[in-house]
Amino acid sequence: MIPGALDTPTGGYGYDRRLIDELRVIGWDVRHVALPDGFPFPDASVEAATLAALARLPHGATALVDGLAFSALPGTMAAEAGRLRLVALIHHPLGDESGLDAAARTDLLAREAAALRVARAVICTSPATGARLVTAFGVSPQRLTVAPPGTAPGPRAIGGGDPPLILSVGSLIPRKRHDVLIDALDRLRDRPWQARILGSDALDRGCAADLAARIAALDLGARITLVGAVVDTRAEMAQADIFALASEYEGYGMAFAEAMDQGLPVVGCGVGAIADLVPRAAGALVPPGDPEAFAAALAALLDDPAARRAAAAASYAAGRALPRWPATAAIVARALATA
After folding, report:
1. pTM of the entire predicted model
2. Which CATH number applies to 165-320: 3.40.50.150, 3.40.50.2000, 1.20.120.1460, 3.40.50.300?
3. Are strands 165-169 and 242-244 parallel, antiparallel or unpaired?
4. What average pLDDT does this structure show over 68-95?
């Protein structure tokens, strides 16, 4: 059960799509139930439609509900928890999203805690998110399963661009902190590079407009391209020299994993799941929200081709050791079977 359009170009929706496919491959009868859009702040009509969708499920059905909907409607989930086997799929806590005011954050965190209390089981995508669900939301370890996203093999990045190509992949939303990347690149304008930022501008039009205005104000429009949503990000990665994403929080970090699978040196921020996922030898992890540190990490790779090659090799080795999608589906299947 997933709100909005299943083909939405984000990591969370990508996880959901691939999980549906992989569970079917191993013999599960999976039905996709499309819930209305409007989360995580649903109005009365969205809540009513979600309750109706749950009510149509047969008694005893296992319902794996994406956290974007599950966590926003504790009352709705509680109403059906005795009849259905409700399992929450948490990509990251709703209240941890950037750009929320204090009241909205408090409300979302409280609703999520209440909703998770009625889940038969909780599945999340990283050990870091799992630890937060246990300590901050009271989810017992016995009800919790960590099922990291699989990483499909992609073509190895060829590198060697002239000038080097810096690639970033992430929706144009505040949490991805593309503003930090842009400000870091501004500090490196004396060096040769080109940058492409791949990501949908539809999730936060205001943020997307602010980023475009920032690039224009810095007179970097000829060097930084906001590409928009791209279906095949892996082909773009294959042509890049460095992967850079200044995200201040990730439930897992699928773009980081794919960049490593293709052997791209990585510059990111050493927080949460990213710190667990990306080894230091693969590039550099710096404090979040620090353009100066981000610029220094990029400069170290831009200025030293040998260091860039070494980071690429370490990144590739780490990426090829990541779990694949069949393993992820097997973990989720076991959790669903015992919920």
Report:
1. 0.91
2. 3.40.50.2000
3. parallel
4. 97
